[in-house]
């Protein structure tokens, strides 16, 4: 894999994009332009932070107890769940949410958008170990465009001669003032699988509010949604395409304590996951020679 110095020579952008080696040995891309700042770990193509210049508080949440280590996922940011979401359908020993978030990716392109935003494209690095879990020919790219809005494009190209099925998510953690003073609008009337205490199909009535552990997969919906945050006096808009599922998750006290890296004692209260996905009823068939792209755009609005 390329070193930070090599990446700076090939892909660095003066005043906007640079690469550095973390103490863990992982390489971090640092973006700072007139519109926003962001950081991304090349392992997992894991966007860790994003803060528009017009926001005094980050929009993407990273746990203060987040750990960076080879082969381990990072708590917070926007992990890439691929090529399956949740547990593997038939192999309990395979990693939950797939392997994409814990393996090396390589930088393939960088540049500046016409509006001044910074873009960076990474590609998952194939290996024999991964082919043992996913024996299909394909290319997985993630393009991140960092500006006043944050746009992420996860593209799966089937380069083989047979079709395959994927489930996936951009597992975004958002910074909020307090989970008890936040709600999610835009999904009223949608069906969802309620995964707390079993898995039952329900229908959303009004805005989503939080008073305990919540783990829901909203299905058959291309709708965007809005995180309404009374404490921080802002709205976070989530718009998507190529996605028919939305996952809404907060662990609450007991689960957060068991996880151990949520930022003790109450870091979980300051985050909310709203994930743009294709899961359960909405798995994606990618035919030979075709490409599927999940696109999401996040934008923060102060009230």
Rg, rounded, reads 18 Å
Helix content: under 10%
**Poorly predicted tracts of residues:** none
Oligomer: single chain
Main pleated-sheet profile: 9 strands, antiparallel
The proportion of strand residues reads 35-45%
Reported CATH architecture = Distorted Sandwich
Number of strands: 23
Tell me, rounded to a whole number, the average pLDDT: 96
Describe this structure as you would to a colleague:
The protein has a single domain (4-302), classed as Distorted Sandwich (Beta-galactosidase, Chain A, domain 5). It has helices at 4-11, 128-133, 252-259, and strands at residues 17-21, 27-32, 36-41, 46-52, 80-81, 105-112, 118-124, 138-146, 149-158, 164-166, 168-170, 173-175, 182-185, 191-194, 200-203, 208-209, 214-218, 225-229, 234-241, 245-250, 271-278, 284-286, 291-302. A 9-stranded antiparallel beta sheet has the order 6-7-8-9-23-19-18-13-16, with no helix packed on it. The longest helix is centred in the N-terminal third of the chain and has 8 residues, at 4-11. The chain has 303 residues and is mainly beta. A hairpin with a 5-residue loop joins strand 1 (17-21) and strand 2. Helices cover 7% and strands 43% of the residues.
């Amino acid at each position: 894999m390329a070193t930070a110095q090599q990446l700076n020579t090939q892909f660095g952008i003066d005043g906007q994009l640079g690469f550095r080696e973390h103490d863990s040995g992982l390489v971090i891309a640092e973006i700072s332009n007139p519109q926003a700042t962001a950081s991304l770990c090349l392992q997992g193509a894991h966007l860790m932070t994003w803060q528009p210049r017009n926001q005094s508080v980050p929009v993407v949440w990273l746990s203060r107890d987040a750990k960076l280590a080879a082969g381990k996922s990072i708590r917070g940011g926007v992990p890439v769940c691929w090529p399956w979401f949740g547990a593997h359908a038939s192999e309990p020993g395979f990693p939950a949410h797939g392997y994409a978030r814990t393996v090396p990716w390589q930088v393939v392109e960088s540049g500046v958008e016409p509006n001044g935003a910074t873009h960076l494209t990474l590609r998952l690095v194939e290996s024999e170990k991964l082919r043992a879990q996913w024996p299909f020919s394909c290319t997985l790219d993630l393009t991140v465009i960092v500006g006043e809005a944050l746009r992420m494009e996860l593209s799966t190209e089937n380069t083989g001669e047979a079709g395959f099925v994927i489930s996936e998510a951009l597992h975004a953690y958002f910074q909020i003032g307090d989970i008890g003073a936040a709600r999610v609008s835009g999904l009223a009337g949608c069906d969802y699988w309620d995964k707390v205490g079993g898995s039952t199909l329900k229908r959303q009535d009004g805005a989503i509010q939080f008073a305990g552990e919540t783990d829901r997969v909203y299905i058959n919906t291309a709708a965007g949604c809005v995180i309404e945050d009374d404490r921080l006096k802002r709205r976070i808009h989530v718009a998507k395409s190529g996605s028919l599922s939305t996952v809404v998750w907060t662990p609450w006290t007991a689960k957060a304590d068991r996880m151990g890296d949520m930022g003790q004692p109450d870091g979980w209260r300051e985050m909310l996951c709203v994930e743009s996905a294709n899961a359960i009823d909405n798995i994606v068939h990618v035919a030979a020679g075709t490409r599927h792209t999940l696109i999401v755009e996040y934008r923060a609005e102060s009230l």
